[in-house]
Structure to design on (504 residues):
C-alpha cells in the first residue's frame, strides 16, 4: 500500500490532511479516488491505514482506520557521518542508507574532501537530501525519516558523537594486522536500543591526524573485509552488516 | 601501489608486457618511469610486485620481483544473478558488487524486467561491464576479476545454478512470517570453499511463478531486513552480509 509521511500539524483528531507534493502524487500519479486506502506515517514513528474521505482543491482528507503494529526500524540507532565525497555520491549514500535503516546523516568536511559546501550550496543540497530521505523512507516502508544535519567540521562531529554508546570508523591502515577488535566483535557487544556512530572518510580516506583524533575520542577503527571499498560503498557495508547482524542473524 | 590485471598471453617467464589501456594509464596518467614499481595480477589470481624495465612504443615491459602472498577474495564464491533493472542500475550493481567480492554476475530476463537486451545492445553492454569489473577489481585490490555471463532466461539460469552448494533469493512475500530458515541460518550452514548462487529480482520483484520455480529448484527465499530494498540495493546487502559473516564476524 502507498505510504506517505505527513507533518505533525496536518494530523487533527481522526483526520489527516495531505498537501503539496503528496497531494499531487495521490491525485495525479496514483489517481486515487474517495474510499481508496493508503498508509499515513506520523513523524513520531506511528503508522495508520487511512481511507480517503475527500479530495479538495489543495489537499486530500483521509480518515484514520487502523493502527499498523510492528516497526521496520533497525533495533539500534545508526548515525552515518560521511566525509564530503565528490559529485553526486552523497545522494547515493543517503538514498541507499535510508533504505538500509540509518537514523541520521552528518556530512562533514574532512581533510581530504575535495569539495567545499557553504551557504547557498549547502542549503540547496540539504533541501534535495531531505526530499531523497522522505521518498526512500516511503519506498522502503520505514516508520521514521532519517535526520540530515548541517555540514560539520571534525571537531563539531567529535562533540556530537560524545553521547553515543559505540563509535566506529573504517580505517584500512589501522585495522590491518592489528590486535584491535574486529567489526564483528564490536557489534557483538552492542545491545538493541543502543546508538552507533559510524564515521566514514571521503575519497582518499582519513588523514593520519584525523584518525588519531577519532581514536583519542573513543572511536574503534574497523575493517570492512579485506578489499578496498570506495567511500560510498563503505557506508552501505556498515549499514547492511548491522541489519544482518541484528535482524537476520539473531532472529532465528 | 597501482595494480593492473594482465592477460595470460602477456606473461613470459620473468617478464610482463603491459599494453592497450593500461599502457596508456601507466605512461600518461600515472607517468611512471623505468624502475618504478607496480603490481601485476595474473588471471589465475596470483599477484606480483614488478619493476618497469622498459617503456616501448606500444608496451611497458616489467620484471617480476616478488610474489604477493595473501588474498582479498571472499572465502566463499558468490554468483549474483540479477533480473535486468532499468537505466544504468546494472553498472552500479557490477561496480559495487565487484568491490564487495562477487565471483560472477549473470544478467537475466525476469518476468517483470521492463528492458530487453538483445544482439548489439547486449554486446555493447557486456563490453562496458567488463571494463567496469576490471577497474573495480584493480581499485579494490582483488586477486581475480569477476566473470560476466551473457544474459540468460530463467530456465537457463536454473540449469546454470544446479551445481552450486547453496541457492538463495530475496523474496519479501515468501519470507514474511514463514517457518523457513533466516538468511543468518542459511549462511551459518555454509563452509569456506563452497559456492553461493544469489538470484535478485528486478524492480517489482519476482512473479509468483518465478518464485515457485526457484523454490522447486532448491532456492531458499530469504529476507534482507524488514525494509523493502530497491533491486540494486539487494545485491549489495547480500554481498556485504556474506563478507561480514565470513571475514569480519569469524576472524576474531
Amino acid at each position: 500500500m502507498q505510504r506517505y509521511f505527513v507533518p505533525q500539524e496536518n494530523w487533527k483528531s481522526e483526520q489527516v490532511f495531505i498537501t503539496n507534493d503528496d497531494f499531487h502524487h495521490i491525485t495525479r500519479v496514483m489517481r486515487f479516488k474517495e474510499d481508496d486506502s493508503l498508509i499515513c506515517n506520523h513523524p513520531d514513528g506511528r503508522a495508520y491505514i487511512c481511507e480517503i474521505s475527500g479530495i479538495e482543491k489543495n489537499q486530500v482528507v483521509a480518515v484514520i482506520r487502523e493502527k499498523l503494529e510492528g516497526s521496520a526500524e533497525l533495533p539500534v540507532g545508526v548515525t552515518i557521518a560521511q566525509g564530503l565525497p565528490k559529485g553526486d555520491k552523497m545522494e547515493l549514500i543517503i538514498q541507499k542508507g535510508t533504505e538500509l535503516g540509518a537514523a541520521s546523516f552528518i556530512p562533514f568536511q574532512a581533510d581530504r574532501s575535495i569539495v567545499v559546501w557553504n551557504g547557498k550550496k549547502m542549503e540547496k543540497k540539504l533541501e534535495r537530501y531531505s526530499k531523497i530521505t522522505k521518498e526512500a523512507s516511503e519506498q522502503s516502508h520505514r516508520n521514521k525519516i532519517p535526520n540530515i544535519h548541517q555540514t560539520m567540521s571534525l571537531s563539531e562531529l567529535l562533540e556530537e558523537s560524545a553521547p553515543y554508546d559505540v563509535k566506529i570508523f573504517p580505517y584500512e591502515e589501522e585495522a590491518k594486522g592489528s590486535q584491535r577488535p574486529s567489526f564483528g566483535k564490536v557489534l557483538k557487544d552492542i545491545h538493541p536500543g543502543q546508538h552507533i556512530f559510524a564515521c566514514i572518510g571521503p575519497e582518499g580516506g582519513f588523514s593520519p591526524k584525523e584518525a588519531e583524533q577519532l581514536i583519542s575520542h573513543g572511536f574503534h577503527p574497523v575493517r570492512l573485509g579485506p578489499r578496498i571499498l570506495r567511500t560510498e560503498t563503505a557506508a552501505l557495508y556498515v549499514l547492511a552488516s548491522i541489519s544482518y547482524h541484528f535482524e537476520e542473524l539473531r532472529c532465528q
About this structure: The domain at 3-68 of chain A is CATH 2.40.240.20 (Ribosomal Protein L25; Chain P). Chain A has two domains: 3-68, 77-249. The first strand of chain A starts at residue 3 and ends at 5. Residues 92 and 232 of chain A are 7 Å apart (CA to CA).
